[in-house]
Specification:
CATH superfamily of one domain: Catalase core domain
CATH architecture of one domain: Beta Barrel
Largest sheet: 10 strands, antiparallel
Structural class: alpha/beta
Shape: globular
Number of strands: 18
Strand content: 5-15%
Helix content: 25-40%
Distance between the termini: 54 Å
Number of helices: 18
Radius of gyration: 29 Å
Oligomer: single chain
């Protein structure tokens, strides 16, 4: 440890560089002699203004924060690549969709929407899912969410939506949650939001991990082929590990234990070489389908069910590298829906049109000027040629005399001068020549007027467990609303979606009778079929791959059982962590000390997908009265997790109140290898939901 200290007479620690490559410099490249003391008039005298080294350091520190994003402030970015598996020249001329096997670099940012940068990861919220593709034809930004629909139909309502969702301006709370009067007041007066309400009150908004959630482009875009023929398209991300969420009580406890849970999960997975993957899918349809479809394909509050237009998988996104610097990359990355490449085009979706303006405007505010594309994380990885120049923080101004076009340089007397770039009708971006006609109006199309039919379809497509969770979520959120008229108004909307749901929520928030239904603009369609693709539990994984097993051990634990559980988890492509009463670990039955990854206080069962409790008889009795140990078992049971155990833990399980309540979600693994393998195989179902069916919330 002594080599870490080189103390001066005044006590400052002057560490020396390892070699010439480690000599500290200023931002101007000037070598620094002393980074511990400001230049002063004598050791006890006043500091001198002339100290350029100290002033530069403080100046930069004073300005190292930039305005956080108005929405999606809490984000996490990861590098990766996209590989096209199936070319689609019949739909699009884009190079990224026609070069099978070519790996295109990407940067993906996941985020929550409403909370600030310091909010917890597991807030009930929509998750942003934005990917920047650095293609040979420039950057393509697919700026989506983990939910395929949105709250509003027109971008002019976006400020109102976010103002209502954010902390109240008079009191500055609540943070990163929608359980308050302002949000539900706005929502209950915006029938167009009802489909989104069903989604945000589902388990989609409390995902287990970024790795286990879908992504959607939300809007309808166009694909345009080399002949100029266009098709409509919706983009989908399908996680290779399947879908998974947590339950609400888990989310609350995880936020308290580890507010960075999602960030840590992604970092650890990539650091371990367990690279997350998503398949990119497209729903492609033509004008004829759009005309016949029950809803307007330009309405961002609607989906096109996969049963009507199947999702065609065309490629795979692999995230394989954590960032080197969070600020330089994750914080400074700038996404914009207007960033599309030749072969992709916008539609007339009014929400998309507004986003195209808003995102660019936001970058100017956050990143200081028009040259944010000069930042490495935003810079295209293909040649860039234009006449744009100067501006704040310009780093790549054009060289030479010419900064305009048309020009006559490159010919005649100026033939030796580079004339600069020119637009190319053959290779350049061409907007699809869609016919446009109509009067200038501030008016919403009547085809946008059905606000309840798909909300009902989403609800009836869920399993009973998921429907219960949605009812509980609505009850909780509305219980935090102080104004009774807002509560009643919201239940009036729910009656259009499902009378049973409305009644459950009304009972939960203390309404003695159901309020009248809210007037509708268009009569809801009540016979839309269920869509199994909308359910998480109907689309869960078929294995325990990518998940995490928590093995709680104590003195005398059977070494063979512990190692069998570790091996079974590894064989399934899962991770296993050891939890023990002490951070040093515990001595197993073979006399060897097994080091712990977590102390029981810092490794509660809520952060694991399944758990095992393996102890010797003395330890089973000793920790039967230990509160963290009891909580570990109790929470695992309450959250419907699969639990492995050995008979020696009976005293602990009895005090936790679960021994007599063991069900088919409990596994005695004392037999060792085969029992452990059987347990991990069953864990592929993730939860023993039969246990929750009798739970009263």
């Amino acid at each position: 440890m002594a080599d870490l200290f080189d103390l001066s007479d005044g006590g400052a620690n002057h560490q020396k560089p390892q070699d010439d490559d480690h000599v500290m410099t200023t931002a101007q490249g000037h070598p620094v002699a002393d980074d511990q003391n400001w230049l002063s008039a004598g050791p006890r005298g006043p500091q001198l203004l002339e100290d350029q080294i100290a002033r530069e350091k403080i100046f930069h520190f004073d300005h190292e924060r930039i305005p956080e994003r108005v929405v999606h402030a809490r984000g996490y970015g990861v590098h990766g690549h996209f590989e096209l598996k199936k070319a689609i020249p019949q739909y699009s001329r884009a190079a990224i969709f026609n070069q099978e096997g070519v790996k295109v670099p990407t940067f993906t940012r996941f985020s929550t929407v409403a909370g600030n940068k310091g909010s917890p990861d597991l807030a009930r919220d929509v998750r942003g899912f934005a990917t920047k593709f650095y293609t040979s034809e420039g950057n393509w930004d697919l700026v989506g969410n983990n939910i395929p629909v949105f709250f509003i139909q027109d971008a002019i309502k976006f400020p109102d939506l976010i103002h209502a969702a954010k902390p109240a301006p008079d009191r500055g709370f609540p943070q990163a949650q929608t359980a308050h009067d302002n949000f539900w007041d706005f929502i209950s007066l915006s029938p167009e939001a009802m489909n989104m309400v069903m989604w945000i009150m589902s388990d989609r908004t409390i995902p287990r991990s970024f790795r286990f959630m879908e992504g959607f482009g939300v809007h309808t875009f166009r694909l345009v082929n080399a002949e100029g023929k266009a098709h409509f398209v919706k983009f989908h991300w399908k996680p290779s590990l399947g879908l998974q969420s947590v339950v609400w009580n888990e989310a609350l406890k995880v936020n308290g234990m580890d507010p960075d849970f999602h960030r840590r999960d992604m970092w650890d997975a990539i650091d371990a070489g367990d690279y997350p993957q998503w398949d990119l899918g497209i729903q492609v349809f033509d004008e004829e389908f759009a005309e016949k479809f029950e809803f307007d394909v330009l309405d961002a509050t609607k989906i096109i069910p996969e049963e009507q237009v199947p999702v065609e998988i065309i490629g795979t996104l692999t995230l394989d590298a954590n960032v080197d610097n969070f600020f330089a990359e994750t914080e400074q990355v700038a996404f914009c829906t207007q960033n599309i490449v030749p072969g992709i085009d916008h539609s007339d979706d009014p929400l998309l049109q507004g986003r195209n303006f808003s995102y660019l405007d936001t970058q100017l505010k956050r990143l200081g000027g028009p040259n944010f594309t000069h930042l490495p994380i935003n810079a295209p990885k293909c040649p860039v040629r234009h006449f744009q120049q100067d501006g704040h923080m310009a780093m790549h101004n054009p060289k030479g005399r010419v900064n305009y076009e048309p020009n006559s340089w490159g010919s005649g007397d100026g033939k030796d001068v580079d004339p600069g770039p020119r637009a190319s009708a053959e290779r350049g971006f061409q907007s699809y020549p869609a016919e446009i006609s109509g009067a200038k109006v501030r008016e919403r199309s009547p085809t946008f007027a059905d606000h309840y039919s798909q909300a009902r379809q989403f609800y009836i497509s869920q399993t009973p467990v998921e429907q219960t969770h949605m009812g509980n979520a609505l009850t909780f959120e509305l219980s935090k609303v102080q104004r009774m008229d807002i509560r009643k108004r919201m239940v009036g909307h729910l009656r259009h979606i499902d009378e049973g749901l409305a009644q459950d929520v009304a009972d939960g928030i203390g309404l003695t009778e159901l309020p009248d239904k809210v007037p509708f603009a268009r009569k809801p369609i009540t016979d839309l079929p269920e869509s199994p693709a909308l359910s998480i539990l109907k689309n869960g994984p078929d294995s325990f791959k990518g998940r995490k097993l928590g093995i709680y051990i104590a003195e005398g634990a059977d070494a063979g059982v512990v190692k069998a559980l570790q091996q079974a988890a590894k064989d399934a492509g899962a991770m296993a962590e050891i939890i023990a009463p002490h951070v040093a670990g515990a001595k197993l039955s073979d006399g060897n000390m097994m080091e712990a990854d977590e102390k029981i206080d810092g490794g509660p069962s809520v952060v694991y997908d399944a758990v095992a409790v393996v102890m010797g008889e003395d330890s089973g009795k000793r920790y039967a009265e230990d509160k963290p140990s009891i909580d570990f078992v109790n929470d695992a049971f309450a959250h419907a997790k699969f639990v492995a155990y050995v008979p020696a833990v009976q005293p602990l399980f009895e005090n936790a109140g679960v021994w007599s309540r063991r069900d088919d979600g409990f596994f005695d693994v004392s037999a060792g290898k085969d029992a452990a393998a059987s347990f991990i195989e069953t864990c592929g179902k993730l939860r023993f939901w039969d246990r929750e069916s009798v739970k009263q919330d």
